[in-house]
Amino acid sequence: MEDNNDRGSLYEEIAVAYGRAGEFDQGLAIVQALQGEDTRERAMERLNCYRDF
């Protein structure tokens, strides 16, 4: 049985890694695909740290 929370955490880390690499839009696409509002919000908060304003 697959744990969706673990998969969401992995995708969150990938999205943040894209942000660190300067690829905010790629990270945003991953965040938007995440299921679960809480997971999406947490990932977006972390990804926003790497947004170019």
Which overall shape is indicated by the principal axes computed on the Cα atoms? globular
Mean pLDDT: 90
First-last Cα distance = 41 Å
- Helices, by number, come to 3
One letter per element, helices H and strands E, the order comes to HHH
Rg, nearest Å = 11 Å
Can you put this structure into words, describing what you see?
The structure is a single chain. This protein is mainly alpha-helical and 53 residues long. The protein has 3 helices and no strands. It is globular.
At a glance:
With 53 residues, the protein is mainly α. It has helices at residues 4-20, 24-33, 37-48.
Write the layout of secondary structure elements.
Elements: H1 4-20, H2 24-33, H3 37-48
Helix pairs in contact: 1-2, 1-3, 2-3
List keywords for this structure.
single chain, 53 residues, mainly alpha, 3 helices, globular
